[in-house]
Write a structure and sequence with these properties.
The complex is a heterodimer of chains A (298) and B (155). Chain A is an alpha/beta fold. Chain A folds into 2 domains: 134 residues, Oxidized Rhodanese, domain 1 (3-Layer(aba) Sandwich), CATH 3.40.250; 121 residues, Rhodanese-like domain (Oxidized Rhodanese, domain 1, 3-Layer(aba) Sandwich), CATH 3.40.250.10. Chain A is built from 12 helices and 9 strands. A 5-stranded parallel sheet of chain A has the order 1-5-4-2-3. In chain A, strands 7-6-8-9 form a 4-stranded parallel sheet, with helices on both faces. The N terminus of chain A is likely disordered. Chain B is mainly alpha-helical. Chain B has one domain: Sufe protein. Chain: A (Alpha-Beta Complex). Chain B contains 6 helices and 2 strands; from the N terminus they run H-H-E-E-H-H-H-H. A two-stranded antiparallel sheet of chain B has the order 1-2. In chain B, helix 5 packs across helix 6. The longest helix of chain B has 27 residues. Classes of the chains: A alpha/beta (298), B mainly alpha (155). At the A-B interface, helix 3, helix 4 and helix 7 of A face helix 2, helix 3 and helix 6 of B.
């Protein structure tokens, strides 16, 4: 088993220069390339598109698919303790392994997997800045070979939903208290407009619009579109502090359609800007937009 | 599998049967990746960037756009664009929909159920991904419905 003392430093000059509250939560593609064979590190790819990992991934990386691996297969919920332990063991991850997550869509599923890992208190999980897009743009190696790492011992605490997650009752109370909400969906989803052609069925929710009081900041504004890297802390502060007025002491709730894009914003607010009280509402619009009697704004 | 589906385009029924016969997930994935490599974007004589928002598939995270052109025989030829360069599933779906719905009887296109996406990609497909890919199919069906209506009105 790898001990925590053996963990490599994740800091790089590039990321440290960007002014983040927790620069240690990001690693560069260069850093990953230099640690491909590091036994203290486990690369984990998590994608929106299920064909991407099998079409080619970073050598040594395992896949965590949110549908198959992170969700309870019966209830709409995440893994329980035993299931999470089994997943980590199967991936060859110990509680001390430094897990480096990356994926497509500027790492939104990678941040989602990291968010779930934090529900189980995994301490050492970071994101590869730029994700698959940057790795591929740099012509770094990909392989279709699926590796099977030795099964590891993993003892996890029970899942703790209190710190990073919020449920509908909590959101209702948050709304009543005029708490801060960030809707990270597209502007069209936020306004509830129908922009698509006549005759197209409206899927996902019975009502369009947003949770009262929410501010619209599409998740993708936090990244540089050309290479998927996160914007600097100054650039992010202009969006989240200056534009929508988030303050350090605010209780903040982020949501989207099913909680995956909002985990990206959760990561940005919590680790890159250092807001201490950020929760992800994973019920999101597929729950809120279908609930009977809850308030909605357009 | 397709015996459950009444009167859908024959080529699509063949595709669904082919994937239904695949019991190995890896085999299915490899087949879809191969299909995706055949993707060709909508030609410039049909549409150019910026593509009109009305052609954007709602809920498709791979930013797919669907176009159609009436053919002399009254059917439609479908074209697609996928703006996400890593949207392999959307590209594979576009190839399958073009191969099986272009030139098919419009009434049969309207009969295609959304479940064919699960049949082809497997039941483990995430809800969000399924919504996006099914959205591409629904866009094709909506275009077929509009074309049928136009044909009825011109009689």
């Amino acid at each position: 088993m790898t001990s925590i003392q053996n963990q490599p430093s994740t800091l790089s000059a590039d990321i440290s220069s960007r002014g983040y509250a927790h620069p240690e939560m990001l690693v560069t593609t260069e850093w990953v390339a230099a640690h491909l064979n590091d036994p203290a590190v486990r690369l984990v790819e998590s994608n929106e598109d299920p064909l991407l990992y099998p079409s080619g991934h970073i050598p040594g990386a395992v896949e965590i698919d949110w549908t198959r691996d992170l969700n309870d297969q019966l209830r709409r919920d995440y893994l329980d303790k035993a299931q999470f332990q089994a997943l980590m063991s199967r991936a060859g991850i110990t509680p001390d392994t430094l897990v480096v997550l990356y994926g497509d869509k500027s790492n939104w599923w990678a941040t989602y997997a990291l968010w779930v890992m934090k529900l189980f208190g995994h301490k050492h999980a970071v994101i590869m800045d730029g994700g698959r897009l940057k790795w591929m743009k740099e012509d770094r190696p990909l392989t279709r070979e699926v590796v099977h790492h030795p099964v590891a011992d993993y003892a996890s605490p029970e899942r703790n939903d209190k710190g990073e997650r919020i449920f509908r009752e909590g959101v209702l109370e948050h709304v009543r208290n005029h708490g801060k909400l960030v809707d990270v969906r597209s502007p069209v989803e936020f306004t509830g407009e129908r922009m698509h052609m006549e005759g197209y069925p409206n899927e996902g929710a019975l009502r369009g619009g947003h949770i009262p009081g929410a501010k619209s900041v599409p998740w993708s504004r936090a990244v540089n579109p050309e290479n998927g890297t996160f914007r600097t802390a100054d650039e992010l502060r202009k969006i989240y502090a200056d534009e929508i007025g988030l303050k350090t002491d605010d209780e903040i709730v982020a949501y989207c359609r099913i909680g995956e894009r909002s985990s990206h914003t959760w990561f940005v607010l919590k680790y890159l800007l250092g807001y201490p009280k950020v929760r992800n509402y994973d019920g999101s619009w597929t729950e809120w937009g279908n609930l009977v009697g809850v308030p909605i704004e357009k | 599998m397709t015996a459950e589906y009444k009167d859908i385009p024959e080529d699509l029924a063949d595709f669904v049967d082919m994937f239904a016969a695949m019991t190995d997930r890896q085999e299915r994935i490899d087949a879809l990746i191969d299909i995706g490599t055949a993707f060709r974007e909508v030609p410039p004589e049909v549409a150019t960037r910026p593509f009109p928002e009305l052609r954007r598939v709602p809920n498709c995270e791979s930013e797919a756009f669907v176009f159609s052109q009436p053919q002399p025989d009254g059917t439609l030829k479908y074209y697609f664009a996928v703006e996400n360069p890593q949207g392999i599933s959307a590209k594979a779906t576009a190839v399958i929909l073009d191969k099986t719905l272009s030139g098919a009887p419009l009434e049969q296109i309207l009969n295609v159920p959304g479940d064919v996406i699960y049949d082809i990609f497997g039941r483990e497909l995430s809800m969000g991904k399924n919504m996006g890919l099914t959205g591409m199919l629904n866009f094709c069906k909506a275009a077929a419905a509009q074309q049928l209506e136009a044909q009825e009105n011109s009689k």
